[in-house]
């Protein structure tokens, strides 16, 4: 970064690379309260404050997460010091989001406009949190989080936190830092923690890198096959980029797997004929992650390190990849590693509407696919926003449960909408209905509705366990069961099907405590045209074909009705 200029998102503001370098130095050395104060006093120019905040009015559960410490009013800014910076050191080594929300809700009553900073007890894991009112419901707070620790790529954190500099904010508004209003500072904080900005940057960079890599690959003449090969390469690398955050891959003692693997290749490359994809990545994909019987292969371990068996179809080598003469240049791989994996922070935490990490999460893969990779908008396909997906899945589940369970309709509504199972007459029957439901999306795209349905089923089963002690499986176990027994999808676009499978695999891996083989989704999510029945029927497996036959029979009955033929929409649920 030295010797360059970096343009920030704030209008008319330019932050020099040396200034961002100083912020980078502070974040990389963030190990105690002293270095945190240095960041805000010397780098971001907030006013010095150091006052503990009484927890006397906090609930017992909130106080328990603090141990012997109390929140510290670390700094303030603007006219009258109205905007606050509050630091809280938690008593545990692990930082839990639910604990953070409880503390933030307790503090907002005293300091409604604040930046909240949390660390674990060891102070080697830091969360910077912006709390913003939900515009549709002012009683709810939207939490946006930037994570800083030695395991994260810090470029996003450096750029976003660099925007909080009161001197730069004042310069942009023609004011001194002490003249900034509360609104001035709050607006900048809201914008700096806007995940959409990070998302858009990632989209743009992903598109450029994807197209560059696709153009550089040699040995594949057919354009569609070349794009499919490129997508498989990106899917595999993206999956590994996410799961390496779980600590499941290690090379030469380093958990930063890709970086260590690439550096080792660069050191060992003694001749120009070496090729990273051929010499190491192909062995990682097709021998390491795809072969359960390679234990004790010392040569392979030396080449790719310690990796788990995952497979699930993601790391199977198909016929098109076995064609001789395919070359992925080293420059293409280097672009993926440096322009995507080194630049952006990847998180395996799945976002909720009220709590989002300002980082690249698994859900972004669907948006990348819809917006940038295949231009599905040209065919009238659009990415459905998460709240709409959740609403439609809940409404569908209400109708299904009312038809399968002898329960009052209002009780089902409360159960699905509010996760209140306290007045269900037979919660065990409801659980059995949830376990036996079959959800099929006949035009699944990149899997938005499949993921949405999975999360709704997961939340409802968790509710039944919490309230009625039914279904004691782990979150991972419930997810695996839902993916294996409840979800099916079809799409005529093979690229979409690949992304949908990848998102389900990633969602499952998020909650795994240790690496487990991935479920094979080849016969759960399939390529096919659900509107052209003779062709689709010949392409679908038994499970999906049975669903299609059921739908087809209902269509035939509808068409025979004498009161006119109505368009028969494909039902999303059946038993």
List the helices and strands and how they pair.
Blueprint: E1 5-7, E2 14-16, H1 17-28, H2 33-43, E3 47-52, H3 60-64, E4 72-77, E5 83-89, H4 97-108, E6 114-119, E7 125-134, E8 137-149, H5 155-162, H6 166-173, H7 182-192, H8 195-216, H9 223-243, H10 257-268, H11 276-288, H12 298-304, H13 330-341, E9 355-357, H14 364-373, H15 386-404, H16 409-418, H17 427-436, E10 438-441, H18 448-468, H19 475-485, E11 487-491, H20 494-510, E12 525-527, H21 533-539, H22 542-559, E13 573-574
Parallel strand pairs: 5-6, 8-9, 10-11, 11-12
Antiparallel strand pairs: 1-2, 3-4, 4-5, 6-7, 7-8, 10-13
Helix pairs in contact: 1-2, 1-5, 8-13, 8-14, 9-20, 11-12, 14-20, 15-16, 15-18, 17-18, 18-19, 19-20
Can you walk through the features of this model?
This protein is α/β, with parallel strands linked by helices and 575 residues long. The protein has 3 domains: 5-193; 200-345, no CATH class; 374-574, no CATH class. 48% of the residues lie in helices and 12% in strands. The chain has helices spanning 17-28, 33-43, 60-64, 97-108, 155-162, 166-173, 182-192, 195-216, 223-243, 257-268, 276-288, 298-304, 330-341, 364-373, 386-404, 409-418, 427-436, 448-468, 475-485, 494-510, 533-539, 542-559; strands at residues 5-7, 14-16, 47-52, 72-77, 83-89, 114-119, 125-134, 137-149, 355-357, 438-441, 487-491, 525-527, 573-574. The strands form 3 sheets. It has a 7-stranded mixed β-sheet, sandwiched between helices. It has a 4-stranded mixed β-sheet with strand order 12-11-10-13. Mean pLDDT is 83; it is low at 1-14 and 558-575.
């Amino acid at each position: 970064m030295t010797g360059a200029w970096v343009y920030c998102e704030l209008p008319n503001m330019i932050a020099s690379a040396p200034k961002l370098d100083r912020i980078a130095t502070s974040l990389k050395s963030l190990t105690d309260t002293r270095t945190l104060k240095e960041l805000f006093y010397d780098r971001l120019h907030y006013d010095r404050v150091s006052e503990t905040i009484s927890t006397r009015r906090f609930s017992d559960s909130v106080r328990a997460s603090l141990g012997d410490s109390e929140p510290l009013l670390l700094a303030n800014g603007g006219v009258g010091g109205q905007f606050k910076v509050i630091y809280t050191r938690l008593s545990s080594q692990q930082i839990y989001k639910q604990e953070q929300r409880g503390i933030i809700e307790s503090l907002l009553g005293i300091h409604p406009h604040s930046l909240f900073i949390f660390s674990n007890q060891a102070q080697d894991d830091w969360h910077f949190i912006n709390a913003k009112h939900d515009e549709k419901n002012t009683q709810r707070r939207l939490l946006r989080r930037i994570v800083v620790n030695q395991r994260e790529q810090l470029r996003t954190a450096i750029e976003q936190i660099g925007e909080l500099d009161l001197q730069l904010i004042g310069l942009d508004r023609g004011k001194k830092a002490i003249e900034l209003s509360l609104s001035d500072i709050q607006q900048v904080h809201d914008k700096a923690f806007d995940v959409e900005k990070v998302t858009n940057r990632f989209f743009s960079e992903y598109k450029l890198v994807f197209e560059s890599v696709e153009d550089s690959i040699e040995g594949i003449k057919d354009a569609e096959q070349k794009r499919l090969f490129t997508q498989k390469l990106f899917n595999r690398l993206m999956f590994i980029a996410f799961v390496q955050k779980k600590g499941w891959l290690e090379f030469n003692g380093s958990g930063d797997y890709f970086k260590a693997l690439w550096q080792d290749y660069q050191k060992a490359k003694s001749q120009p004929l070496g090729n990273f994809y051929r010499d190491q990545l192909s062995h990682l994909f097709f021998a390491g992650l795809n072969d359960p019987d390679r234990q004790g292969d010392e040569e392979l371990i030396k080449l790719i390190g310690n990796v788990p068996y995952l497979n699930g179809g993601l790391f199977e080598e198909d016929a098109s990849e076995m064609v001789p003469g395919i070359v992925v240049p080293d420059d293409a791989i280097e672009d993926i590693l440096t322009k995507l994996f080194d630049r952006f922070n990847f998180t395996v935490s799945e976002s909720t509407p009220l709590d989002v990490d300002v980082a690249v999460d698994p859900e972004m893969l669907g948006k990348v696919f819809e917006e940038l990779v295949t231009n599905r908008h040209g065919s009238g396909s659009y990415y459905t926003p998460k709240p709409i997906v959740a609403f439609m899945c809940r409404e569908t589940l209400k109708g299904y449960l009312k038809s399968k369970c002898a329960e009052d309709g209002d009780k089902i509504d409360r159960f699905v909408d509010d996760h209140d199972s306290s007045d269900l007459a037979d919660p065990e029957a409801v659980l059995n209905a949830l376990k036996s439901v079959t959800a099929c999306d006949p035009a699944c795209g990149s899997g938005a509705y499949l993921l949405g349905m999975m999360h709704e089923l997961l939340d409802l089963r968790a509710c039944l366990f919490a309230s009625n002690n039914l279904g004691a499986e782990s979150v991972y176990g419930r997810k695996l069961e839902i993916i294996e027994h409840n979800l099916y999808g079809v799409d005529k676009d093979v690229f979409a099907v690949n992304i949908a499978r990848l998102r389900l695999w990633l969602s499952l891996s998020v909650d795994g405590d240790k690496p487990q083989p991935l479920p094979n989704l080849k016969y759960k999510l399939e390529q096919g045209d659900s509107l052209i029945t003779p062709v689709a029927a010949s392409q679908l497996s038994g499970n999906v074909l049975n669903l299609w036959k059921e739908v087809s029979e209902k269509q035939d009955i509808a068409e025979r009705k004498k009161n006119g033929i109505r368009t028969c929409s494909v039902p999303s649920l059946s038993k």
